[in-house]
Amino acid sequence: MVATVAVKLKRILRAKNRVKWNFEKLKESNSYSSLEFRTGVNLALEKLIEHRLADNPEVKWTDFKETSTSVGKETVGL
After folding, report:
1. Are the C-beta atoms of residues 41 and 71 closer than 8 Å to each other?
2. Which residues contact 20 (CB under 8 A, 6 or more apart)?
3. Rounded distance, CA 72 to CA 78, Å?
4. Exposed, middle or buried: residue 75 (CB in 10 Å: 0-12, 13-18, 19+)?
5. Which of the 8 DSSP states describes residue 5?
6. How far apart are the C-alpha atoms of 58 and 44, rounded to whole Å?
């Protein structure tokens, strides 16, 4: 007696590991990294405001999110 068996395996989807930032550096009000983060975000947003004249809130939000994450990677670290 010969039989054929078809087996389908499920693919396990794993979530990407989120990179955690060191927020303790930002909580200190007088630390160099918190001042650097604040000034970096302010300067980057001012540059974006000068170049982009969009009134769309979605565009403004994505700009804010991208600038804050890029400055955060530079100052707070991963």
Report:
1. yes
2. 78
3. 9
4. buried
5. -
6. 18
Hunting for tokens 């794993």 — which residue is that?
A: 14
Name the packing angle between helices 57-75 and 32-51 (round to 10°): 150
Mean pLDDT of the chain: 81
The pLDDT tens digits for 11-53 are 888 887 777 777 777 777 777 878 888 888 888 888 887 777 6
Q: What angle do CA 63, 26, 22 make, to 5 degrees?
A: 90
